[in-house]
Amino acid sequence: MAQSDLHLKRVFYDAFRRLDRGGRRFQPEVTAIEVRFYPYAGLHHTIRVRAGRVYVRLSDLFQAAPPEVIRALAFLLVARLLSRKAPRDQERIYRSYAFSPQLLRASDIARRQRGRKVISSANGQVYDLERIFARLNRRYFDGKIEKPVLTWSKRRARSILGHHDAAHETITISKILDARECPEWFVEYILFHEMLHIKHPARIVNGRRYYHTVAFRAEEQSFPRYQHAQEWLDHVVRKRQELRARAA
Ligand SMILES: [Zn+2]
Questions:
Q1: Ligand 1 centroid to residue 201 C-alpha, Å
Q2: Model-level pTM?
Q3: Band of the pLDDT at 51, cuts 50, 70, 90?
Q4: Which of 85, 174, 164 is closest to 127 using CA atoms?
Q5: What domains appear along the chain, each with residue ranges and CATH number?
Q6: Binning pLDDT at 50, 70 and 90, where does residue 241 land?
């Protein structure tokens, strides 16, 4: 995974060097390039620059694309970013893959399955995750957290109240919290925790991943109702144990 990740960065790095030979417009380092596959609703890719870093999101329908197609796509996206004309041959390579029957079919299916569902599932019966996210982002992160896909879980899970999937840039919140009995500040706390996972990516030490670093925990405790939220967490967990005991 790490290898192919580096390979993707190199492909884009190379496209920058070739399209901007003098380095007059923009010439990022390999380490300043992030490339991710993203479950867009249709066939869609984005590239943007923020604070000197390049963020690329490729449709996950391209995950199995041959190397020369990814390379062609890199040229197209970088050319778009630099307002240059993309090389003709690269455009041809990209198109012949993107418009092949099997890819069009896959993108059709993705559009049908993801399109509306993904958008509407952020808006629950009681709480709208998009609105809560925007508020938290403004209040605690200076608006700097890039909005992931936000969605209520399909099942009413009690064991996992929130989850951040870095690979797909998705935050899922358990539907159990989308209820009038659940105070809004508790939903905020759970979403705040998951947003911290975006701000503080996992650290890898001796091959192990650490998600809740010291910096993460310190910032988490700055949440105004942090203590109260811990009591609520206990409350939700206890309820789960009671339910389990009853079922047993
Ligand atoms: Zn966590």
A1: 11
A2: 0.53
A3: confident
A4: 174
A5: 2-116 (3.30.2010), 121-247 (3.30.2010.10)
A6: low
- How far does the centroid of ligand 1 lie from the alpha carbon of residue 241, in Å? 21
Distance 226 CA to ligand 1 centre (A): 14
